[in-house]
C-alpha cells in the first residue's frame, strides 16, 4: 500500500492548476516580477505602522477618520516627495542598468518588437532576447524582465532613442501628473521642471546627444563640441508620425555641415587641418550601426 497517497493527491491538484502558480506561465502578467503578495503585505504594514501606529481603532468613526485623513495625508506626502526629485533611488536604479545596457545592440523588428543582444556566452555568440510591447508596456523574455520588470534590455532600447514606458525614471509630464494627483491643479507646473533641462534624468542618453552643436567656425577646432546654444529635443520629435520627416531634415542639415567643413578645409590647407580631418574621418569610420551613435557622442566627443 502506498504511504504517500495524500502527498500524491496534493501534487496532482497542484499540477492541475499549474498555470496559476508556475512562473513560466506568468511572464506576461503585469506583476513586475512580484510572484507573491508582498505588495499587499507592504500596504498592510503601512496602514498598521504609519496610519494606526500599531494602535486599535475602537469605533467605526475613528477608523474612517484614520483612512480619510491620516492615510490620505500620507499618500499625498509620498507623491509630492516622489514628484519633486527628492527620491533618487529610481535614477540610481536606472544608471546601474545603463552601465550594462549602453553596449548592447538593439534591432527594431516591428512597432511592437525589439531584438536586444545580451552578454556574450563562452562560445562568443551573442544571445538575443525579444522585448515585446503589450498594451503599451514593454515585456522582456529574459529571466530578470519577466512579468514586466525593468531590465538591461529595456534600458538599451531607451538608450538607443526609442520611446519606452517601462522605465523607473520620470519625465516632467509624469511629475506634473503626480502633482495633480496629490494636490490637484492648484500649483505651478513649472515647479516640477528640472533646474537644468539638459540634466533631466527622464531624458534618454540619445536625446541628450542632440543637445550638442558641432561647430567648425575656425580651422583649429573642426570637430570641437559647442554646448553654448544646445538645441532642445522636443517631445514632438519622438512621435512616430514625425520621425521620418525629422530624420530627413537632420540628414539635409548633416550634408550642409559636411559641405561647410569641406570648404573650410579646402580654403585653409595646413598641418593642423590635416590632423583634425584625419581624426574626424577616423571617428566617422567607427560608425557601423545605429547603436554606435550614442557611443560616439558621449564616450568620445565629450572627452
TrEMBL record:
Keywords: Metal-binding, Zinc, Zinc-finger. It comes from Schizaphis graminum. One of its GO terms (molecular function) is zinc ion binding. It comes from the Eukaryota. PROSITE patterns: ZF_SWIM. PANTHER family: PROTEIN B, PUTATIVE-RELATED (PTHR35385:SF2), PROTEIN B, PUTATIVE-RELATED-RELATED (PTHR35385). This is SWIM-type domain-containing protein. InterPro entries: Znf_SWIM (IPR007527). The keyword Metal-binding applies.
Amino acid at each position: 500500500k502506498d504511504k504517500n497517497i495524500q502527498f500524491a493527491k496534493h501534487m496532482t491538484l497542484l499540477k492541475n492548476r499549474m498555470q496559476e502558480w508556475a512562473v513560466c506561465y506568468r511572464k506576461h502578467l503585469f506583476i513586475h516580477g512580484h510572484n507573491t503578495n508582498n505588495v499587499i503585505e507592504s500596504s498592510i504594514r503601512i496602514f498598521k505602522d504609519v496610519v494606526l501606529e500599531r494602535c486599535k481603532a475602537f469605533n467605526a468613526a475613528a477608523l474612517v477618520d484614520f483612512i480619510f485623513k491620516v492615510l490620505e495625508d500620507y499618500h499625498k506626502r509620498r507623491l509630492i516627495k516622489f514628484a519633486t526629485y527628492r527620491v533618487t533611488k529610481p535614477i540610481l536604479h536606472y544608471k546601474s542598468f545603463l552601465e550594462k545596457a549602453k553596449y548592447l545592440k538593439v534591432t527594431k523588428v516591428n512597432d511592437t518588437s525589439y531584438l536586444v543582444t545580451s552578454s556574450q556566452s563562452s562560445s562568443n555568440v551573442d544571445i538575443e532576447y525579444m522585448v515585446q510591447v503589450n498594451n503599451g508596456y514593454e515585456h522582456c523574455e529574459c529571466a530578470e524582465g519577466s512579468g514586466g520588470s525593468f531590465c538591461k534590455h529595456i534600458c538599451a532600447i531607451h538608450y538607443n532613442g526609442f520611446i519606452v514606458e517601462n522605465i523607473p525614471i520620470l519625465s516632467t509630464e509624469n511629475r506634473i501628473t503626480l502633482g495633480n494627483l496629490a494636490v490637484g491643479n492648484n500649483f505651478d507646473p513649472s515647479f516640477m521642471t528640472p533646474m537644468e533641462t539638459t540634466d533631466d534624468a527622464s531624458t534618454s542618453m540619445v536625446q541628450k546627444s542632440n543637445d550638442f552643436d558641432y561647430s567648425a567656425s575656425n580651422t583649429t577646432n573642426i570637430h570641437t563640441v559647442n554646448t553654448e546654444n544646445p538645441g532642445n529635443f522636443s517631445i514632438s520629435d519622438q512621435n512616430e508620425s514625425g520621425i521620418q520627416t525629422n530624420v530627413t531634415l537632420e540628414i539635409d542639415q548633416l550634408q550642409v555641415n559636411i559641405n561647410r567643413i569641406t570648404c573650410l578645409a579646402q580654403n585653409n590647407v595646413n598641418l593642423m587641418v590635416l590632423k583634425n580631418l584625419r581624426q574626424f574621418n577616423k571617428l566617422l569610420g567607427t560608425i557601423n550601426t545605429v547603436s554606435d551613435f550614442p557611443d560616439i557622442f558621449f564616450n568620445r566627443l565629450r572627452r
